[in-house]
């Protein structure tokens, strides 16, 4: 069959090869190729134009389809119009704009057009982009909000708003409150705005209450009314939000939003552990499998108050179901600002009793508590953790900060982790790397793990680098180098460990190659 006789659906798939993958891949060669295909024949014209106009960035393409006599480049280097557009020229724009499904507008895109173009687009006699599905608007200058408003319509299912350049304002709040009414079928909403205010929180929450088909939400501060509405949505799969003091004050113990639908991912950002604890006490997630918690503690002088963490962990264990598979808990804190005296303070060390409530999540595969000082957790405690969480694939505890509190964990604890968590692929853990008796348990009963390829030890002491390298290679044959924080008292020793690991791995490669080589026939005497 000749290519011109192929069905339109097939041609669209072929032409999609030349379409840019994202907004950062607008290659002129792709556009030129699609434009040339559209001019080839009548069969190619419509599918090629559909592909060419499907994803558009900026407003210049709207003007570029007009006759050259209509537009020009002004004195300031911006695209301008010589006169108002005529009815036929609006029809010409509409002929192409109706093909647009995804439109991205950045501050740079707006800066390339002048006020005449802006006013003309706002005055469009009919919906400017009538079949738009995905809209990304990355500019928060209020003078251009009328232009944004004309793009918002009932066909849109995905909106990405970035208002982070300037602080909250009444105009932003009004626009957000207007969003749900204009775009009631939004399934994906990402909204970032600069600063934090109760007015902005109420505005975005009001907009959310008009959305019934949300699948993914990534925004900032929500109030309790919005949480109740979101908990009622059976379509919601992913939820990223923030909470502040003025939000949690509205939470009542006898009134708890309960997410019992198919919500799969949750990400919560708060300003302190106490705010997060209060939040977790007053909301329930019964089906979530992935959780990311962020403490934005950039304004704090210390990373955390050890007395706040036990209640936080207990609240977390009651908030989420035992089906949880991923837990990432991060502090946005610059640990490099701490003095050695603070990093060596044993009061920051959290013991086994603090993390014990997490053992209820027996399905955990990915556990990241790397901000914690885990120096008080010993070998017996880690054995209990490993036995309770046998599905672990990635574990990271106590290595994000350069804690100087000597670890209680030894090589024995590492052996327990390898022995009972057979699916492990990466380990971040500080321990006292002293050689152990390889002929006694648990070393002698532990099967080497061939999946683990990444091992980071943070600040760990090491004695006898040759013995440590040999024992690590025996347990973790796929680990070629060990990552560590560079400190004077340990850098040289871990460098030697990595040198010996390199030799051992090269030797293993040679033996494997020799084992695969064809054997020479034995000569009989």
- Name the helicity range: 25-40%
Order of strands across the widest beta sheet?
1-4-5-6-7-8-9-11-13-14-15-16-17-18
Oligomeric nature of the chains: single chain
How many strands in all?
Answer: 18
**Rg over CA atoms:** 30 Å
Count of DSSP-assigned helices: 20
Uncertain runs with pLDDT below 50, 5 residues or more?
Answer: none
Structural class by sheet pairing and helices = alpha/beta
Question: What do these coordinates show?
Answer:
This protein has 20 helices and 18 strands. α13 runs parallel beside α14 (309-319). It has helices at 8-15, 28-38, 42-54, 60-64, 87-97, 107-111, 115-122, 145-151, 170-182, 198-208, 224-231, 245-248, 273-281, 309-319, 340-343, 352-355, 379-388, 411-420, 465-475, 488-516, and strands spanning 55-57, 71-73, 79-81, 102-106, 134-138, 158-163, 188-193, 216-221, 238-243, 258-259, 265-270, 284-285, 290-295, 326-331, 366-369, 394-397, 426-429, 454-456. The chain is globular. The strands form three sheets. A 14-stranded parallel β-sheet has the order 1-4-5-6-7-8-9-11-13-14-15-16-17-18. The chain starts with 7 loop residues before the first helix and ends in a 9-residue tail after the last helix. β8, α11 (224-231) and β9 (238-243) form a beta-alpha-beta unit. The longest helix is centred in the C-terminal third of the chain and has 29 residues, at 488-516. The mean pLDDT is 86. It is of the alpha/beta class and 525 residues long.
